Amino acid sequence: MLDCRRATLIYNPAARKLQRGCGEKLRKIKDALTSFGVQAEFLPTERSLHAAELSRKAVESGTELIIVCGGDGTVNEVIAGMAGSAVPLLVLPAGTANVLAKDLRLDKGLTAPLRLLQEGAVRRIALGMANGRPFALMAGIGVDAGVVAAVHPALKKKAGQGAFWLAGFRQLFQYSFPELELTSGGNTYRATFAVIARSHSYGGPLSLVPQADLFADRFDVCLFEGRSRWVYLRYLVFALFRRHLHLSGVRHFAASSVDVQGDPGLWIQVDGELLGHVPARFTILPDALSLVVPADR
Fold first, then answer.
1. What is the spatial distance between Cα 52 and Cα 55, in angstroms, rounded to a whole number?
2. How far apart are CA 166 and CA 161, in angstroms?
3. pLDDT tens across 4-50, in order?
4. pLDDT of 160-194, one tens digit each?
5. Could you count the other beta carbons within 10 Å of the beta carbon of residue 291?
6. Mean pLDDT, the chain, integer
7. What's the pLDDT score for residue 170?
8. Are 270 and 76 in contact (CB under 8 A)?
C-alpha cells in the first residue's frame, strides 16, 4: 500500500482517451483518488516539454506522488522532469500505444490503475539516456523513427495506432534505408534499423526485443541489416510471431552503452517521440525512477 495523501496529476488534454469528455473523465479520476484518501492537484500540459516543467516543479514543491495521465510521450516528458528523485510515479494510460502500461500489465481504463495505491508496489528502475535525455522504453534509429516523423498529427488523433501502420507502409515504399554504424562493447556493427530497448513491448502487437527487461540495468539491442523493402516485409511478418531473431540479417545483444553514427538525416525516436538526428550516445542511468507497479511485477 502506498502511503500518500498529497499528489500531483499531470494530464495531456490532447491524449487520445481524453479528447472526448475530458472534464467528466477527470472528475471520475478525482473521485477515485478521494476514495483512496488522496488529494491531487490537476495540471494540464499546454505545449511541448511542458510536462517536464510541471513534474520538476512538483518534485521541488514536495509532492508525495506524481500521476501522469497521457500517452508514452507525456510519460517520457514527466520522467525527464523527475528522474533521480525519490517521488513515485503512477501511470494512467490515455494515449495511442501505451507501451509502458502494456509492459507493466496495468489494468485498462483511466481509473483502474489507481487500485495500485492500495494493491501495488514501488520499484526503483534504471532509465536509458539518449544524448542526455532520459527515456523509459526504447530508442529507435532509422526506419521506425522515419515512421514517427511521417505520421500526421491530425491522423494520429483520429486513427490512433492505425496512423502509424499507414505511415509505416508508406515509408516502406519511400524509405531509402541509409546505413548506420553502431558501436558497443568494443564491437562495431552496421545496420539500417536499430532498436535500443528497455521494454520488451514495442507498439501494437510487436515485440522487437522480447528479452528486454524494464527492471534490468541494461539495454537490449536489436539490429536489422537489410536494405530491401521486401526484406523488411519479411522482418515484419516474422516479428508479428516473434520469430524475427532467428532470421539472417537480424542481430541481438545486451549492452550498457551504445554509440551511433550515420547519415546526418537519420532520425532518432525515444518512447515514440522524435529526439533529433544522429550521432547519438545511449547510456544507462541506474536507480533513476520510483515506479508504481502491480505487486507481481
1. 5
2. 9
3. 899 999 999 999 899 899 999 999 999 999 999 999 999 999 999 99
4. 555 555 655 566 667 788 999 999 999 999 999 99
5. 22
6. 91
7. 63
8. yes
Neighbouring-strand partners of residue 283: 129, 257
Q: Would you report the helix, strand and coil content of the chain in percent, each value rounded to 5?
A: 35, 35, 35
103 — pLDDT class (breaks 50, 70, 90): very high
Q: What's the whole-model pTM score?
A: 0.91
Classified as helix, coil or strand, 58 is helix
Looking from the CA of 6 toward its CB, the CA atoms found within 13 Å total 6
Instruction: Answer whether 83's CB lies under 8 Å from 127's CB.
Output: yes
Pair 199, 79: CB distance under 8 Å: no
CB contact at 8 A, 150 and 157? no
* Distance of alpha carbon 75 from alpha carbon 52, whole angstroms: 9
Per-residue pLDDT, 159: 45
Domains within the chain, CATH numbers bracketed: 6-125+289-294 (3.40.50.10330), 135-284 (2.60.200.40)
- The number of C-alpha atoms within 13 Å of 211 and in the hemisphere containing its C-beta is 16
Report CA dihedral (288, 290, 294, 296) to the nearest 10 degrees: 60
> E strand or H helix at 230, and its extent?
helix 229-240
Query: How many other β-carbons are positioned within 10 Å of the β-carbon of residue 183?
Result: 15
Phi-psi region for residue 129, left (φ > 0), alpha (ψ -120 to 50) or beta? beta
Residue in the block written with cell 513534474: 55
Identify the residue whose cell numbers are 515512421: 147
pLDDT at 155 over 50: no
